[in-house]
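Dear support,

I submitted the protein below through the web form. The confirmation email said the job was done, but the results page showed an empty box. After a refresh the structure appeared. I'm attaching both so you can tell me whether what I see now is the final result or a partial one.
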Amino acid sequence: MKIELWVIGRTKDNYLKDGEAEYIKRIKRYMAVEVITIDIPAWPASLTPAEIKMKESQLIFAKLKPDDYLIALDEKGALVKSEELAQKLQSWMNAGYKRLVFLVGGAWGIDDTLKQRSNWQLSLSKLTFTHQMVRLIFLEQVYRAFSILNNEPYHNS
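What the results page shows now:
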């Protein structure tokens, strides 16, 4: 199995890039992981947020495979504890999915068509984060989940 984190647009701040790189390196001890950046064109200023989300979803649908297990990171998704995320990760590994795709939407979020296609929706918090910060927070949680599954001391429960 491989974990892919799909993100809309590039991370601009070096401190976030450094954090992402650190957690990717840590996760790779357990499983193949890759961050896939979906570059978007400069949309015309006349587009509404809904139109932007729809256009972003078209770019994402073009990359999805029918057997991808898609998890949308969305503010209305399930709120779980780190231990519960670890158990979900274990169940997905046991199920034998080839590719887990975790999707972070753009600044306006994720289009409803992608939410409907998703196999699960996950919220990282009731708080709102920038879509760039979510990437780092999510990668840290994946690393934490693996440390829980491997009974390593990183997670203090």
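Response: this is the final, complete result; the empty box was a page-load delay. Residues 72 and 115 are 7 Å apart (CA to CA).
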